[in-house]
Design goal:
The complex is a heterodimer of chains A (about 260) and B (about 260). Chain A is α+β, with helices and mostly antiparallel strands. Helix content of chain A is about 55%, strand content about 5%. Chain B has a four-stranded mixed beta sheet with strand order 2-1-3-4. Classes of the chains: A alpha+beta (about 260), B mainly alpha (about 260). Chain B: It holds the Pfam family GST_C.
Chain lengths: ~260, ~260
């Protein structure tokens, strides 16, 4: 059963399904999709995922998309391949439900706010650099209307009010995580699960670099300790050291302003 | 150990889908009707301030109180019932079909349910919330943990209507009806082939729209007959029998809302 994982840099969505592959020791072929060259909107990639989005898991010809659901799919298909710390999806029904609340919270109330800042910084740089006319032509290749809107908006930039609101939501999420980590060592309880992988990939790993004004180390010490524990996991370290072709001038998404 | 209790509102939206999933699972869990529009969900006896109530991504859906812990979110509760019952058939066993079902439910949660909740609350619950006495309303909003959810209550009370959001919501309902129609085009009886949570979750949110957005269904005969089949299914009948008002299709309380920018 061959697996190919189509992904961009080890960050956010692309990292989120790469970590479980590594944690579970699943052998896969890595195919890098260059977002800076709009490769996700190219014909070869849209033939694989008509939505034109990374990452994609090709499992022996079956195409699986959307990271939270990819990760549960991996649990369904490889239930016995688990890290020493325990199953990435709790095996008791209540534990699985707890993991799913966190995933949903991250997907709907964290990811998009961090992503807005990310798009504003990185994508804005790319999009503004594309010459007029050229950009419109590229937009014709973006299959999802919502995604097209995002690109157009990223090009013109988000308003300060939108960005400030997004920062506020991120702070709210950090407070929630900090409180939870006062109760349990990991988000969904005593073990490292897909919920931790989700928050780490979309926020935890880069929030301190991205938002120095939030004084993360000072206000969220438990989150920082948890982040360092997650970063130190061999599988996570392995994923983080995978391909990163981000042009240095564009390393703004997860870095400084 | 305390007994598990499912607190639910009128059988509409998330309360309908969860009650039907419970009936389908055959689990013996006590159901208690509460008035969601009086904020009763936020002041449950014995409920600790736990994760689920604090998340409130779904809005005013049902809550399962299990050993003092609150559990919420209709799809996750349905999955929980299925898993706790040792697989009662609400989730496909095949990994790919399971993925497809969860993707579908996510689309319902991200597109359909915020749209239905927005339209339904404006049409049915804005006036009752605006009519609450100042003190009663303040007591409700004080009891809500989530800032987002509290704001949705406040917006309804203040009758804040965003024309673009209303239009977007109407479009999303029409698109979803079409999505169901397309899915059923190959002659299948249920959305995922076999009956699953996807049927319950989609039906529960579309059912109230048959009155409020009736036009959306006119050119969707397959969707309409699929809804008839669901209406007749014993688990749905059992859920609808828990209604205390004449028309539960009009029972709404502030529901899910997600970031719509992309």
């Amino acid at each position: 059963m061959t697996i190919t994982y189509y992904h961009a840099e080890p960050l956010a969505n692309s990292l989120k399904s790469m970590i479980p592959l590594k944690e579970k020791g699943i052998a896969y072929t890595s195919t890098y999709v260059d977002l800076h060259k709009f490769e996700q909107h190219s014909d070869w990639f849209k033939a694989i995922n008509p939505e034109g989005q990374v990452p994609v898991l090709d499992h022996a010809g079956t195409i699986i998309t959307h990271t939270t659901v990819i990760n549960e799919y991996l649990e369904d298909v490889f239930p016995d391949q688990q890290p020493e710390s325990g199953p990435l999806r709790p095996t008791d029904p209540a534990g699985a439900a707890r993991m799913r609340y966190w995933n949903k919270f991250v997907d709907e109330h964290v990811m998009n706010h961090v992503s807005m800042h990310g798009w504003h910084r990185l994508v804005g740089v790319i999009a503004r650099n594309v010459e007029n006319g050229e950009f419109e032509k590229l937009m014709e290749h973006v299959p999802l209307p919502d995604q097209r809107k995002k690109w157009m908006q990223a090009r013109s930039g988000f308003s300060d009010a939108d960005l400030a609101l997004a920062t506020e939501k991120i702070e709210y999420a950090l407070n929630k995580v900090e409180a939870q980590l006062g109760e349990t060592p990991y988000l969904a309880g005593t073990h490292f699960t897909l919920a931790d992988i989700n928050f780490y990939s979309h926020c935890g790993m880069m929030v301190e670099r991205m938002f120095p004004d939030l004084e993360v180390a000072k206000h969220f010490p438990r989150m920082v300790k948890w982040r360092d524990i997650v970063t130190a996991r061999p599988a996570v370290a392995d994923a983080l050291s995978s391909e990163d072709r981000t042009a240095p001038g564009l390393r703004t998404w997860s870095g400084d302003r | 150990m305390a007994e598990d209790i499912l607190y639910h509102g009128e059988p509409n939206g998330p309360s309908l889908s969860v009650l039907a999933a419970l009936a389908e699972s055959g689990l013996d869990i006590e159901c208690r009707h509460i008035d969601l529009l009086k904020g009763a969900r936020h002041t449950l006896h014995d409920a600790q301030e736990t994760l689920a109530s604090d998340m409130a991504v779904e809005g005013e859906g049902p809550i399962l109180l299990k050993d003092g812990e609150t559990m919420s979110e209709a799809v996750f509760l349905a999955q929980y019932f299925d898993e706790a019952a040792g697989s009662c058939g609400l989730q496909p066993k095949d990994a790919y079909l399971h993925w497809e079902m969860m993707m579908w439910c996510r689309q319902v949660n991200e597109r359909l349910s915020p749209a239905v909740a927005y339209l339904g609350n404006l049409a049915c619950s804005q006036a009752p919330i605006a009519a609450l006495a100042e003190e009663e309303f303040a007591a409700i909003t004080r009891s809500i943990f989530s800032d987002d959810l509290r704001q949705r209550w406040q917006d309804l009370r203040d009758d804040v209507v965003d024309a673009a959001r209303r239009e977007d919501s109407e479009a999303k309902v029409r698109q979803f009806v079409q999505r169901v129609e397309d899915k059923l085009a190959d002659g299948r009886v249920w959305l995922m082939g076999d009956f699953s949570i996807a049927d319950l979750e989609t039906f529960a949110w579309l059912r109230p729209m048959t009155e409020l957005e009736a036009d959306a269904f006119t050119s969707a005969p397959l969707c309409r007959s699929w809804m008839d089949r669901l209406e007749q299914r014993p688990c749905v009948q059992s859920a609808l029998a828990k209604a205390v008002t004449e028309n539960p299709k009009r029972a709404f309380a502030p529901g899910p809302e997600i970031n719509r920018w992309g």
